[in-house]
Amino acid sequence: MGCADTGIAGGAKAGNSLSASEAVSPSVGTPGEGRNAENKPSGQIEESGEYTSKEDVAAYLSKYGHLPENYITKKEAKALGWVSSEGNLQEAAPGKSIGGDHFGNYEEILPEKDGREYFECDIDSSGGYRGAKRLVYSNDGLTYYTEDHYKTFELLCGEE
């Protein structure tokens, strides 16, 4: 089973956590119930749907290879009047979340590979100030979750 099938299951190392100061160690427990943008329990992931939970967005990325329509880049949001320091995304771009921008992996916590690029998107964003939760995903099928703004990562999909 892959991410698209279950919303989380991924490859052999799925569920592993990475941090700058720790070796890879398995996560304990099961993911919480995913919810879509309307705060309804996750179900079938549809290309026309709008999703913000880690499970749903990871499954969407795995299934369709791009973010849901409710995500816009920082550049697109700024063009609509978004000012990060004002937390006005809901006013500037109702229903949208920030995502699709390049993630530099400057601390090299995530595995590097020739040709691999990482991108990021906000998770559980309510349209105000951006929180610490992000998915970081690669152009070759890896998807990681961080709930502490890039300090630690949990592999959700793919094999390193």
Automatic annotation (TrEMBL):
Domain of life: Bacteria
UniProt KW Hydrolase keyword: yes
Signal peptide (from-to): none
Record's GO cellular component terms: extracellular region
GO molecular function: hydrolase activity; RNA binding; RNA endonuclease activity
Keywords, comma-separated and alphabetical: Hydrolase, Nuclease, Secreted
Predominant location: secreted
Region (Disordered): 1-52
Compositionally biased tracts (Polar residues): 16-28
Subcellular location(s) per record: Secreted
Family: Belongs to the ribonuclease N1/T1 family.
Name listed for the protein in its UniProt record: Ribonuclease
Organism: Wansuia hejianensis
